[in-house]
Amino acid sequence: MTRQQLIEQIYTKQSYLCVGLDTDLSKIPPHLLQQEDPVFAFNKAIIDATQDLCVSYKINTAFYEAMGLAGWQAMQKTVAYIGNNHLTIADAKRGDIGNTSTQYAKAFYEALPFDAITVAPYMGEDSVKPFLEYADKWTIVLGLTSNNGAKDFELQTCGTQLLYEKVLQTVATWGTPNNLMFVIGATQASEFVNIRKIAPQHFFLVPGVGFQGGSLKDISETALLANDCGLLVNASRAIIYASAKEDFATEARAIAYQYQQEMATYLK
Amino acid sequence: MTRQQLIEQIYTKQSYLCVGLDTDLSKIPPHLLQQEDPVFAFNKAIIDATQDLCVSYKINTAFYEAMGLAGWQAMQKTVAYIGNNHLTIADAKRGDIGNTSTQYAKAFYEALPFDAITVAPYMGEDSVKPFLEYADKWTIVLGLTSNNGAKDFELQTCGTQLLYEKVLQTVATWGTPNNLMFVIGATQASEFVNIRKIAPQHFFLVPGVGFQGGSLKDISETALLANDCGLLVNASRAIIYASAKEDFATEARAIAYQYQQEMATYLK
User: Fold this and answer.
1) How many domains does chain A divide into?
2) ipTM score above 0.90
3) Could you list the residue range(s) of the whole structural domain that residue B216 is in?
4) Which of A116, B9, B31, B91 measures 20 to 30 Å from A180, CA to CA?
5) Interface test with chain A among B153, B170, B171, by most A beta carbons within 10 Å
6) A-B contacts at Cβ under 8 angstroms
7) Can you tell me the mean pLDDT for A9-22?
8) B189: nearest Cα among B204, B167, B179, B176
């Protein structure tokens, strides 16, 4: 999915919502556990219930890897089921020396047909470049994350900047706003004005609203781009675990609808 | 495998060699491709040929993920085949917010029975802690890596230190030399004296000898600990692709034997 196609989807649906499929066997409604593939059954129901309200799905690979082979298979079926009308993100936080990152790119852009993958920047340019070499794919590099641990390194002073600022500035020179996004946690609202100055055109993937407490309003008021939107705001647990009963998909839709309605007001 | 058991293995075998199983279908001897599971067949032959010369095997997960389900299955069979007499390392470079790192820990310490996993430090303490909570397992955090990209962030000044120095010092407070190691690239020999001062007791997992050009001699002379060794030196491509013909296992053994013999001289 190109930047232009993504922007069109956003304005058509009046939504920049990404639904995070952090699917955990211990949290899905018990009646699904009798299904042959409970994880896929859950994901399918969530996708069916939310697909007109969001422009993207983010699969947190850790939850699938924790289930071994069956998990990897459920991930495969889920990304195939989502199809081409939503931006599919492998939230995988990969990154290694060049020849290894090339293999990760194959894993998530070829063996699994994702549009995008999240990448950790610590190992520098040759660990990120192999992902950027795929013409029609997106590389989403960690900038400032939503968790408390962000203070340990990301928010430390590095030369005349904070480390995450240096990461944003440096990584921005490796790609373009057409193939590169940044992860910016929603809980870091006080930094958003500054971050938008450093990366005035890039899309930000923003996790951390809902369960982690970030404010959709604050983020949108400080970082939304006038015509290109430039934001994908992700909610995972707040949507997919809105109910643990048989009505889970209906309740997930209700929460996704609230996000979409609020987003529509900011897009105007 | 505890620190004491690992040290015993090292002095018994007179080796601190880790063999890296970066198994790539396009590089293994063509006659294996007719096997039902060529990757496992290759790994099994390499393990059989080297197991008395090394104390550890490192599986580079990227190469397995790139093959999709079949790759994940080959990884499962390989780690089971290695068994309990070698330290099994998932070279996976994972790390995410706490509840997600917990899932990665489940994936590699439970669903797959690895002894150790490599972890990226960028996201800070709560992204690393879930791995350290497993009593009998090892967390191997990236310090200074072997690739050229290390200069982009790891070798940048951060306050009064380099970033990687800050990472080593900070992360060392989260675990102990009994459950925490660091990745230090063999190509960074000029930094080894300094690194050993910062982490005087920890084991270092050292990739980058062989194909990447790091010197076993330089590393051993500067960072080997008097009684505890404190080093696991990894070679992947130099050993497993020593020959692309039917004699690949014999040739792999020959290279592993050279490393072991050299290591024996440094252990004395």
Assistant:
1) 1
2) yes
3) 3-267
4) B91
5) B153
6) 193
7) 98
8) B204
